[in-house]
Amino acid sequence: MSFLVEDDPARRRFEILVDDAFAGFTAYRPRGEALVFTHTDVDERFRGMGVGSALIRGTLDQVRERGGQVVPKCPFMAAFIGRHPEYADLVAAG
Length: 94
Prior knowledge:
Order of helices and strands: EEEEHEH
Number of strands: 5
CATH superfamily: Gcn5-related N-acetyltransferase (GNAT)
Mean pLDDT: 97
Distance between the termini: 38 Å
Shape: globular
Strand order of the largest sheet: 1-2-3-4-5
Low-confidence stretches: none
């Protein structure tokens, strides 16, 4: 299985493709230098396969590369960051 995570700024979401098939997204709202993540959804065909984690990891890696920060309002993203403290530095203060 190959994963590709890409930002779609027009839709304000990062999307994940699994073997070239759309598999899910995590939606955001820009707020200054930070992105406020509000919702993550993985197509039921791809649940339980690590797709959600791959989506969040790929998203956070891209935010880091851009020098940005996140506000994880989405429970799935917040839980992922809680389990992976190497991403805690991306969380915006306040």
